[in-house]
Amino acid sequence: MGLRKKVSLIIYRFRERGLEVFLTRQSDEWGLPGGDLQANNPSELIELEPTADQEEAVAVEGDWHEIPSLKQMLFEDAGELAGRLVEMESGAFLTVKEALKERLSPNQVEFLRELRDVITDRNSVRDL
After folding, report:
1. Residue 26: which CATH number?
2. Predicted TM-score of the model (pTM)
3. I need a labelling partner for 93 at 20 to 30 A (CA). Which of 20, 52, 64, 101 fits?
């Protein structure tokens, strides 16, 4: 049985420039992809704390070659799904530092900062 809920999806990866996150472009603004998320293996996801507005987000490590399978995690009505896939095609990876300079919603900024803290803590533990 899978887990299904409406969330922002943060796709992240590590590169020479550091931690990068995948943002989509709508009009002239960047944002996090989102929708109804169905994950058969919730242990692969990092669940972030809900914001004060009760908006939720999860993070998953991924790269360009994994984007098609991550797109399938966005499970919505057929009409909306087509729009979401187009939105994903207009996306790009940016470092967290670069992403925080973009005009993101306060909730999205909060999610990215929490992800950065979680990843930093996980990597610190590995180095012990």
Report:
1. 3.90.79.10
2. 0.61
3. 52
